[in-house]
């Protein structure tokens, strides 16, 4: 069992809030697939409009979605109650935000879900689709607009106030889900931790993106079934490295555990995320693209790795990468250069192309590297399909 800030999880794999955690059938499927928990689709006290999912999607690369349907409070409560009635084994986490003027509404809302049987509250301080899209276009918010999601999560004081309000209202664990768009997400986390956060949920990325456009169709953005286009939340593999970053950033600034989502497609990604400081990983887009089998593969792959490497549990390697983390001034660069194995080299010349490099030439149809000119960047190593180039310490 994993103790995730007071929430008991049977393994480190959770379904992230989204269109795969909006119905009881999905929660049952997640349970059957072996997920330890599911964060249900965001519950909002008011919805500015009702829109089903629209997205630009390139499987295994990126999803950009400007809208998808949220749950109303009544729907959310019924979903939690039904999951408990059916005695699902997985922990039910409620992803919520309030659109009411008083911060206290967050507390009242969270209490309703605790009474319905929720196992934890995930405060949505991250959704970029409403307030943030408007602000990024320079559109003033209307008088009736209440900041939600990412805009609340950019403000350390407000994020902490909401966290405290919910902490004061419920006994179950409270997990702020942070936005990568904050100036300093680590500061937001520190303030929320002081306000009583039991754990954090993070998501990587620049958050909002725009799809490609039809260059022969008057620049029409390539979203299907939309008259116009908005910036959309970016998810999937494209944000994985940004998720590594925010996971490491938050994990080394707070004491409580972190759950990370963003571009986890396989168990190796999950292990890396754990080594960057996540105690638990969560996944959404990959399940949308490839189905519930993703969860089973993640759980089994992580288990196998733990056994093969002789660890007692995943907790043994949470944050292992953080010991190596420092600022750019302090990297301790090792002198070295690239060397080529001429037996393997097929003379394709791909290694001579990098625009920043004067060290590699072709001689007698083989790559030749001048160690004095080599910067040591190792891009030729990555380019060589023959695996003929390696780096050598000077
Ligand atoms: C279509 C879609 C809808 C989402 N809806 C929510 C949501 O309601 N609340 C939330 O906190 N995150 C939401 N997310 C974000 C996911 O929970 C997750 O943090 C993010 O997608 C990164 O993980 P992934 O790359 O595995 O999808 C949504 C993601 C997608 C793709």
Explain how this protein is built.
This protein has 394 residues and is an alpha/beta fold. It has 2 domains: 2-324, TIM Barrel, CATH 3.20.20.70; 333-393, Alpha-Beta Plaits, CATH 3.30.70. 29% of the residues lie in helices and 22% in strands. The chain contains 12 helices and 20 strands. The chain has an 8-stranded parallel β-barrel, surrounded by 8 helices. A 4-stranded antiparallel β-sheet has the order 5-6-14-11, with no helix packed on it. β5 (54-58) and β6 (62-67) form a beta hairpin. α3 (104-116) packs across α6 and α9 crosses α11 (293-308). The N and C termini lie far apart (47 Å). The relative contact order is 0.12. The mean pLDDT is 96. It binds flavin mononucleotide.
Descriptive labels:
394 residues; alpha/beta; TIM Barrel; Alpha-Beta Plaits; 8-stranded parallel β-barrel; 4-stranded antiparallel β-sheet; 29% helix; binds flavin mononucleotide
Distinct compounds present: flavin mononucleotide
Query: What is the 3D shape?
Result: globular
Q: How are the strands of the largest sheet arranged?
A: 3-4-7-8-9-10-15-16
Amino-to-carboxy terminus distance: 47 Å
CATH top level assignment of the largest domain = Alpha Beta
Mean pLDDT: 96
Going by helix content, strand content and strand pairing, the class is alpha/beta
* CATH superfamily placement of the largest domain: Aldolase class I
Number of domains: 2
Question: Which percent band covers the strand fraction?
Answer: 15-25%
Low-pLDDT stretches are none
Helix content: 25-40%
Q: Profile the largest sheet.
A: 8 strands, parallel, barrel
């Amino acid at each position: 069992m994993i103790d995730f800030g007071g929430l008991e999880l049977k393994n480190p794999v959770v379904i992230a809030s989204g269109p795969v955690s909006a119905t009881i059938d999905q929660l049952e499927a997640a349970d059957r697939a072996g997920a330890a928990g599911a964060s249900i689709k965001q519950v909002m006290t008011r919805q500015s409009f009702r829109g089903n999912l629209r997205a630009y999607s390139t499987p295994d690369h990126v999803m950009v979605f400007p809208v998808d349907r949220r749950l109303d409070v009544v729907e959310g409560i019924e979903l939690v109650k039904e999951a408990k009635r059916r005695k699902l084994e997985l922990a039910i986490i409620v992803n919520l935000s309030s659109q009411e003027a008083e911060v206290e509404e967050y507390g009242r809302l969270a209490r309703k879900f605790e009474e319905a049987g929720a196992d934890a509250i995930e405060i949505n301080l991250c959704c970029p689709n409403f307030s943030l899209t408007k602000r990024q276009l320079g559109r003033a918010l209307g008088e009736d607009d209440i900041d939600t999601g990412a805009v609340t999560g950019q403000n350390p004081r407000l994020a902490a106030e909401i966290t405290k309000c919910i902490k004061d209202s419920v006994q179950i664990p409270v997990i702020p889900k942070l936005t990568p768009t904050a100036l300093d997400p680590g500061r937001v986390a520190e303030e929320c931790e002081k306000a009583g956060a039991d754990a954090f949920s993070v998501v990587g990325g620049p958050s909002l993106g725009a799809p490609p456009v039809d260059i022969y169709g008057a620049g029409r953005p390539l979203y299907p079934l939309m008259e116009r286009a908005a910036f959309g939340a970016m998810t999937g593999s494209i944000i994985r490295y940004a998720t590594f970053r925010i996971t490491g950033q938050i994990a080394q600034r707070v004491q409580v555990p972190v759950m990370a989502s963003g571009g986890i497609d396989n168990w190796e990604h999950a292990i890396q995320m754990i080594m960057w400081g996540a105690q638990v990983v969560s996944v959404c887009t990959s399940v949308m693209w490839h189905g519930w089998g993703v969860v089973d593969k993640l759980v089994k792959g992580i288990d196998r790795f733990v056994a093969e490497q002789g660890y007692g549990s995943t907790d043994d390697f949470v944050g292992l990468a953080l010991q190596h983390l420092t600022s750019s001034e302090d990297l301790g660069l090792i002198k070295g250069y690239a060397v080529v194995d001429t037996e393997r080299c097929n003379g394709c010349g791909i290694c001579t192309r990098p625009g920043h490099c004067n060290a590699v030439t072709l001689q007698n149809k083989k790559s030749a590297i001048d160690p004095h000119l080599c910067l040591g960047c190792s891009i030729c190593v990555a380019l060589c399909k023959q695996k003929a180039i390696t780096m050598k310490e000077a």
